[in-house]
Amino acid sequence: MEKKEQLYEGKAKKVFATDDPTLVIVDYKDDATAFNGEKRGTIAGKGVINNVMSDHMFQLLEQQGVPTHFVRQLSDRETLVKKVAIVPLEVIVRNISAGSFSKRYGVREGIVFDAPTFELSYKNDDLGDPLLNDDHAVALGLATRAELAQIRDMALRVDAVMQRYFDTLGVTLVDFKLEFGKTADGTIVLADEISPDTCRLWDKATGEKLDKDRFRRDLGGVEQAYQEIMKRIMGQGETTDREK
Ligand code: TMP
Ligand code: ASP
After folding, report:
1. Ligand 1 pocket, residues with Cβ under 6 angstroms
2. pTM
3. Backbone angle region of 161, left / alpha / beta, with phi > 0 → left and psi within -120 to 50 → alpha
């Protein structure tokens, strides 16, 4: 698959055209930002880990009936994906209080919810990704009611699959952010990435943070945390192979 012109460069990834108009190549960078780009840095090896982990998660989710943009991995930093129009929503599912939820509602981090919460932000850096509800999303023309219902169902299914999976790795899935895209025929698929940049992952035994909060909050051990998650994901793959 030939890599053609660059279509887009985001904070963590670049997107390139291919000779097939329905497919693009995502190229993951080591660049890290936080607080809407105010804090900048690099996390050595992050691009490789986020690429490999995202592809692993997308394949797991496909097996569990969640359609995604994934086509195939091309190299350690590059993946071939279906070309989609990203729905400009950040879809956040939370199982445990943390981050902006704790800040906004004035509660400690670590409260385990009886059921997951589903929340939407308007994906708009100029506005700082403001929180919005379904009515707002429809009024702004970001998605239809039917699309929002489908996105909610898919996000909660992703949560169920991922919670179960991370539990087997000794990791608690606290919360995560998803993005969805629409293919040319209007089908909604899971897109973007699933990585320690976009999930909060806490060690089940110690509560240690194994995600981008180490970078956001200057906790140190950032690279080690990403590597630890990668090691557990890959280790599990080996176990599964041996069990076959
Ligand atoms: P929050 O608590 O800061 O709203 O973050 C919720 C989840 O979303 C957390 O797992 C980190 C992820 N996230 C992103 O992927 N991108 C972002 O820009 C932000 C703010 C959060
Ligand atoms: N979206 C944030 C930023 O732009 C990144 C984050 O906190 O995950 O810099």
Report:
1. 92, 98-101, 175-177, 197-200
2. 0.95
3. alpha
Averaged over 127-152, what is the pLDDT? 98
Show the CA angle centred on residue 234, arms to residues 192 and 56, nearest 5°.
25
Owner of token pair 């009611």: 145
17 CB neighbour count, 10 Å cutoff: 17
Ligand 2 pocket mutation, candidates 11, 29, 33, criterion most atoms within 8 A of CB: 33
Share of the chain above pLDDT 70, in %: 96
Question: Band of the pLDDT at 28, cuts 50, 70, 90?
Answer: very high
Tokens in use for 16? 């390139």
And the tokens for 159? Answer: 């949560």
Is the Cβ–Cβ distance between 19 and 4 less than 8 Å? yes
Q: Which ligand is nearest to the CA of 12?
A: 2
In DSSP notation, 96-143 reads E--HHHHHHHT--TTPEEEEEEEEEEE--GGGT--EE-HHHHHHTTS-
The Cα 242–Cα 244 span in angstroms is: 5
Residue nearest to atom 11 of ligand 1 (CA): 198
Give residue 24 CA to ligand 2 midpoint distance, Å. 23
Ligand nearest to the CA of 92: 1
The residue whose two tokens read 């670590």 is 110
